[in-house]
Amino acid sequence: MTISKHTYRFLGSLLCLLGLLSGSAFAQTQQADSSYFEINGREDRRVTIPFELINNLVVIEAQINGSTPLKFIVDTGVRYTLITSLYNREVYLNSTRIINLAGLGEGEVLQAYFSEGNILDIDRVSGRNMEVVILQEDIFKLASFMGTEVHGLIGYDLFKNFVVEINYKRKHIYLYKPEEFEEKFEKLPRHRKWHEVSLFLDERKSYVNVDYHSPVTDSTVPLRLLVDTGSSNAFSLYELAHPAIKVPENTIDTFLGTGLSGDVTGELGRIPSIQLDEFTFEEPVVAYPDSISIRRAFKIGKRQGSIGGEAFRRFKVIFHYQNEAMYMRKNSDFGDEFHYNASGIEVHTPIANLPYYVISDVRKGSPAEEAGVKVGDVIQYLNRRPVESYTLNEVHNRFYNKEGSRIRMTVLRDDTARLEFNFRMKDELQLQMDN
C-alpha cells in the first residue's frame, strides 16, 4: 500500500499493498471470519451512500463503535479495514493487540494495533465483529495531500457482503443484497451497454486479466492485474513480473509514494493500449515502480500490476464478488485522454480544509523548474484566481491539463517576495514505437 507524497495523481497508486501484511503478523487472526454487514431499518433492496471523489479516490463517511464520523477511502486492494490517523478523534476499539506489518518499499517492518469485535456503521449499514488495523503513527499524511482529513481505508469487508455499484459521475455507491438481486445481475451481461468481466478472487483480493500492448516489442500479451479502487492512477505495471513488460523510451523519474516499509520510486511512461474485455484504453499513462521498491510484491507473485481509479472513473462499475464478476458500463468520461502532471509541481497543505497550498516538489527539467518555481513557495493566485477559491483537488487538476496549456501563478517566497510565473505544459511522455 502506498500514498504518494510527491506525485499526488498517483496517490494510493500502490495502496493495495496493505495486502502485503505479512502472513506471520496475522497468524493469530486466521480464525473463521465472523464479521458481517446488515442493513438497518427498512428492508430496502438498495442502500445509497454518497461519496467525495478526490483525485479518483472514493471517500465515504463511517463510524467505529459509535465514534464521530470518520472518512475512509473505499479500496478493493485492502484486506482489512485500516485506520491511518485519527487527528485527535476519540475512537474506542475492542480487543487490541500489537502486530507487525510489511509493505511495499525499503525499510524496517512497522508495528500496528489489531482490533477485533468492532461495529462499523456506514449510513444505514452496520458491520458487526469487524477487524480493524490501526497504524501507530501517521506515516502517510493523507490530509496533507488530499486537502481534507482522511482517517483510513475500507475494502474487502464491504465487498464480501454486498454487490457494490460505484457510479463515479453521480458520486454514489449502491449496496445490494446479493440473494435478492440474482435475477437482475444475471440480465446485466446481456444488456447491450453492460459487459461482464471475470474476477479472480484470492486472499480477500480481486484480479482481472488484460491484454497489454508493449511499446517496445510492439506485441500484445495477457497480464493479470489487481483490481484497486484505492489507486488514483490508471495502471501500474511491474517490469520484473513478465518479460514482455518493458519501460517505454520516453519516461520521467518520479517518487511514487511511501509504503508501509519505506519509499517507492519509479518511472511514468505511456503505452499504446491496454484491453480489458471489450474496453480498450488508448495511450494510458502507466506507473512503473522500480524493482527494489517492489521486491516484496513479487513474493506473492499473483499479478503483474494493478488497475485503478483513473480507469474505473470512466464507467459505472458493479462488483459482484459472490459471482466472481465485475459489470462495467461506459460513462461520458470514457473517451477522456490520459494526462499526468506535466507542470512538474506537487502541492500539499499543512492544515487540512484550509486553502493554504505549499509547493512540496518541483520535478527536475519540468516547465515549473525552468520557470523558476521552488519548493516552499506558497501559492496565492492560480490562473488569475485567488487560491482561496480552489480546493486542493482543484489545484492538482490544473496541473493535469494537456500539452500547451498555460499556467499563470503568483507565489509568496520566504514570507517576503511576491513572484509571478507564466509557463506552458509540455508532454514528456510522447509515445514512440520501436521499429
From TrEMBL:
For this protein, the record's Gene3D superfamilies field holds: 2.30.42.10, Acid Proteases (2.40.70.10)
What keywords were assigned to this record?
Hydrolase, Protease, Signal
Q: Where is the PDZ domain?
A: 358-395
Q: Which GO terms describe its molecular function?
A: peptidase activity
InterPro entries in UniProt: PDZ, PDZ_6, PDZ_sf, Peptidase_aspartic_dom_sf
**Which processes are annotated in GO (biological process)?**
proteolysis
- Endpoints of the signal sequence: 1-27
Q: Does the keyword Signal apply?
A: yes
The source's superkingdom equals: Bacteria
This chain's protein is named Aspartyl protease
- What taxonomic ancestry is recorded? Bacteria, Pseudomonadati, Balneolota, Balneolia, Balneolales
